Fold this protein.
Amino acid sequence: MDEVVARLVAMFPGVARETIVTRVQVGLSAFSSAPIRDFLPVLVERRVAARLRAESQVPLGLARPA
């Protein structure tokens, strides 16, 4: 999972590493009962990346004028 964290840190430089580590740990725990664990890094990375992308978007009504 260290590689997943490293890729996510590179993709989201504005997010604290600790936040990403926590999100990856939580994401991994969601699959704790998965019988096949081969694809967990890919699944966790995609899930965390999607959530971080969604959280980084500013709602249209709240955007500040330039």
